Automatic annotation (TrEMBL):
<keyword id="KW-0501">Molybdenum cofactor biosynthesis</keyword>
<dbReference type="GO" id="GO:0016783">
    <property type="term" value="F:sulfurtransferase activity"/>
</dbReference>
<dbReference type="InterPro" id="IPR003786">
    <property type="entry name" value="FdhD"/>
</dbReference>
<dbReference type="GO" id="GO:0097163">
    <property type="term" value="F:sulfur carrier activity"/>
</dbReference>
<keyword id="KW-0963">Cytoplasm</keyword>
<dbReference type="GO" id="GO:0005737">
    <property type="term" value="C:cytoplasm"/>
</dbReference>
<dbReference type="Pfam" id="PF02634">
    <property type="entry name" value="FdhD-NarQ"/>
</dbReference>
<comment type="similarity">
    <text>Belongs to the FdhD family.</text>
</comment>
<keyword id="KW-0808">Transferase</keyword>
<protein>
    <recommendedName>
        <fullName>Sulfur carrier protein FdhD</fullName>
    </recommendedName>
</protein>
<dbReference type="GO" id="GO:0006777">
    <property type="term" value="P:Mo-molybdopterin cofactor biosynthetic process"/>
</dbReference>
<dbReference type="InterPro" id="IPR016193">
    <property type="entry name" value="Cytidine_deaminase-like"/>
</dbReference>
<feature type="active site" description="Cysteine persulfide intermediate">
    <location>
        <position position="118"/>
    </location>
</feature>
<comment type="function">
    <text>Required for formate dehydrogenase (FDH) activity. Acts as a sulfur carrier protein that transfers sulfur from IscS to the molybdenum cofactor prior to its insertion into FDH.</text>
</comment>
Amino acid sequence: MPEFEDHLPSPLADRAVQRMPFDGVLTDTVAAEVPVALVFNGISHAVMMATPQDLEAFALGFALSEGILDTPQDCFGIEVHTTTVAAVQSVEVHLDIAARCFARLKERRRSLAGATGCGLCGVDSLQALDLAVPPMPQHAWVTQLQAATVLRALQAMPALQVLNARCGSLHAAGWASPEGELLQVMEDVGRHNALDKLLGARAQAGLLGEAGFIVMSSRASYELVRKCARLQVRALATISAPTDLAISIARGAGLQLWGLCRDPRAVLYTSLSTS
């Protein structure tokens, strides 16, 4: 058993650097990237490299967006512990979850044991890929979402990226109202982690069902689209372009997907049609 410590690592660190052309040794602020183990009912399920901040929200968002939990109420408690493994400061996040969710997780782990097939994310066959997302109910406000509204939310994001302003290497995921008012931003070295932190924070506050859309400082990969659709997020807008698979999954789920959102232009890659 690891020996737990009292304090989380800092999300930022100062390192000595040399700027070229050489003008002396200076100090630069960089983002921390630490192993974070997600432990469900005592069993470690995944280890993610993440920024050590907002980890309770991260763990809950991951559990929901990956289908481990059905609702936030399936999580009865979360504890965050710091330890040192091979001289590297690491974190374990322990979640106490409902018995039916844990039984499903154990069955999933058994199905992945000894995977030697295509090697994609640990699955052993193409048939094991979990790419299908049921269509979401359509909401009138999404049909009225305009590029100017999406760009308004993205333009407001840098001011709320307080960690990235210091280190310049963190992704951000933000929640915007249907009118484009940016209400919340979460940061992490990983775009998936930033999204899970945001979804988890919304779940903790009981706000997952509110109307609104997500904006991100990254490209739109299929994983981001799938996570959003699983939690009934109706629209996603990213600064960079999406992949073809992301567009296909968004269309099937009825998620409005925007990309290349850089003022004064934005590209709409899907409509609300689920065909």
